[in-house]
Amino acid sequence: MLDALQEYLFDLRGYIIIPNALEPDLGADLNSALDSIDFWADWEWKGWLRKGGSQISQIFEGGEPFEKLIDHPGYIDFVTRFVGGDPSSCIR
Length: 92
What we know:
alpha+beta
């Protein structure tokens, strides 16, 4: 859950670091999945993934490990707080 220091740091920096937000096994699965993607030329589509420069759009389409990131319990409360979801909890 969010504490006062995290709220302050987010307000100050625009981001926070959440230690141990992901399980080590999930991190390893994500790295393995990224390694298995055949990176191609810039600004090109590969299935549902699009690479533009050093970014990959729609990475959740990259397979099951990425799908686990969509509403991961390690950070979903932070996303809901700072990005929105419950209007009563949004920063005003």
